[in-house]
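Why do we care about 3D structure at all? Because function follows from shape, and shape follows, mostly, from sequence. That is the central idea of this module. The next example makes it concrete: a single protein chain, its amino acid sequence, and then its structure expressed as tokens.
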Amino acid sequence: MTTLLGCRSLVQEAAALRSGADDPADAVRRTCDRIDAVDPRLRAFVPEPGRRARLLAAARELAAAGPPGSAGRPALYGVPVGIKDIVHVDGLPTRAGSALPPEELAGPQAAVVDRLRAAGALIAGKTVTAEFAVTAPGPTRNPHNPAHTPGGSSSGSAAAVAAGMVPLAVGTQTVGSMIRPAAYCGVVGFKPSYGRIPLAGVIPNALSFDTLGCYATDVAGIALAAPVLCDGWRPTDGDGAADADRPGRPPVLGVPSGPYLERADDEARRAFEAQRTALAAAGYEVREVPVMADFAAIVEQLFTMNRYEVARAHAQWFARHAALYREQTTAAIREGRTIGDAAYETARERRAAFRERLAADGADAGIDLWITPAATGPAPADLTTTGTSIMCLPWSNAGLPSLSLPAGRAANGLPLGLQLVGRSGADEALLSWARGVERVLNGAAGATGAPTSER
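And the structure:
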């Protein structure tokens, strides 16, 4: 089993580099040593000949650009970051987990990479993705048990952070591609509100849903990275008070009872009951709210839009290279080609109505954050699948910000996650409130004898 033992968190790494107590070249050497030691088995990174030389040159350039000490050093000075391989990075090919010629997929560097580099980050390399961020798995293994999936499609980014290869990695979510791998790999995954991070320079899956996000080992790390990545970040007072219509206070937590929650397996539901009990004992008000009685129709609506948009995003590439696509991606594209414009527009109208209804249900019940299992259970022992995204689906459909927190272990020792979901645009409040929930979960894990997060 690969653990985080002995690896520094993002906050620790960034503080040491900004203060001058550590040097970017030393951070590069540690990162490359860890990748060399761990990645041949986990395969979280896309292989890159000359990675060490490239990163050392970038580290020397960074160190030469400014004075020693913390004065003026940006937030992520010298921090190595993994980038999902559907995100364009100057100097590195984009393959998107596919067999297509990289020159077909080439494009200008993504805006999110521009932001990371402006904040002083070093790009450790491309992380493995499911083919075109759909469902055909990449070669990455779960760091806690390599016989199990790490999830998808941001598999490499989640596994790279979980295995201590990098303290920060970027991924994307269309339906469940950030939150599920975070839960399976036992790290914190953050999917902001739809549109909060610009998608320029990212190969699309389904543009009505695609959202960039990031992984770290704790909420503090996400809170350090989020202002760099997200548009218009507003500082909070630590209790969600950046949200103007909500005073700084503990959030009211909502449990979405009904057919949605019933999709989690028995073990995940038992763990979730223990988590909500621990939160209630810690003083959080937890309200059960019946919602999404028509959950099957919500699922159908999302996949109508998703498959339609996948087919159109790949129309030209698929026409030229259909034989190079894997079976799962081909099936998604072919299904999307059967969906007409009228059906798509109907699905769009239904989604708009769903979003309004979900927001009204939460407001009527006085809910600040929804809490749910982050996945239907622990990572499956099946490397031919990335698992199911069903626990993330309605929140992605509504474009809401979400976060997965490590929340104990299943009977087989694999991680479980708790998903927190905020209101659209209230990402700052979500992260602020998540710190308190994280403390409760860590305390509950220790009290029950379950392993706490090893970092």
